[in-house]
Amino acid sequence: MKKLLLxxxxxxxxxxxxxxxxxxxxxxxxxxxxxxxxxxxYSVDLGGNPLIxxxxxxxxxxxxxxxxxxxxxxxxxxxxxxxxxKVYGFENSSSIPVKDIKCIPGQVKTERExxxxxxxTIWISGLTTxxxxxxxxxxxxxxxxxxxxxxxxxxxxxxxxxxxxxILNNQAFPIAGATRGGGIACKRGTLYTSYPPxxxxxxxxxxxxxxxxxxxxxxxxxxxxxxxxxxxxxxxGEGSQQTPTPPxxxxxxxxxxxxxxxxxxxxxxxxxxxxxxxxxxxxxxxDQEHRKSKYTNFREQTTDSEGKTVLENIDLTKLSSTDxxxxxxxxxxxxxxxxxNIISYGIIKIPNCI
Length: 354
Prior knowledge:
Elements: E1 14-16, E2 22-26, E3 30-34, E4 41-47, E5 51-56, E6 63-66, E7 76-81, E8 86-91, E9 114-116, E10 122-124, E11 132-137, E12 143-147, E13 153-157, E14 165-168, E15 171-174, E16 180-181, E17 184-187, E18 190-193, E19 204-205, H1 206-212, E20 221-224, E21 230-233, E22 263-265, E23 272-274, E24 282-286, E25 299-302, E26 309-311, E27 321-322, E28 325-326, E29 329-333, E30 341-344
Parallel strand pairs: 2-16, 8-20
Antiparallel strand pairs: 1-18, 2-3, 3-13, 4-12, 4-14, 5-11, 6-10, 7-8, 7-11, 9-10, 14-15, 15-19, 17-18, 20-21, 22-23, 23-26, 24-25, 24-29, 27-28, 29-30
């Protein structure tokens, strides 16, 4: 991965021997952990960030919040009605009533209500009809599966908003207040560090960190209590049942974007929209660990002014595997030998654009 080593007095690259697990945040925005087993896949938790998904209310103003088994008891959930600018929060509990409510075309359900159907699926009503809704699971963070390189190191760019901590192997590496410097890099199986050495991020217990850094409701969120009454706003904890706001007109459709991550499938087809890259920059894309023009899914193209590009006619059936795992869809910047942008961990998992 291409990394800029920022030095105090002069630039130098010094090979580093393998050490116990230690973490760094580079001035280029990359987070790195070394001391791992080479070529092994690790699950990385982006601590402090809620798990976000997108949904759409139906013509009755009803939204399916979570399917059976998707959330557990005591999970805290927020729904933001994007068109109305309203946020609603609740905790999944046994007190949520079980009802059989169906959407009848032409009949808008303006009453704001939360219930479960007989299968345990959670629903909410009283939203803007046929419009975008953002669902935030506050008690769970996004995870990424990343494979360590030949140096026993994983490295990835911290997206905005940055997580508060990176959690791996039940250890939390806090990001806030960490010294950002030259970081580390792996070149042809050799690990390099900047000079003078950058301070490491000291890990803490993941369980303790999560207890002290739980994600709370938005201060403007209207909260429901255990008796399923809307009791007021998170910011002051006071109030009473609120009169539902009349549904707003459907919002104007937006440009297709990935629901989470860096890539999505346009109209569910074989054209892949990639975002989050450098603007006006040439990239080579491949579904292999080493790019070769003979591969079916090899592409060489330049991003637009917003760092976007569309990979057309990607063959989703051409999935090679290493050690039984789906090979990544990778972008190589300006012909660099080392990949520096992992677009997806298995092409078949790329979601549809929303």
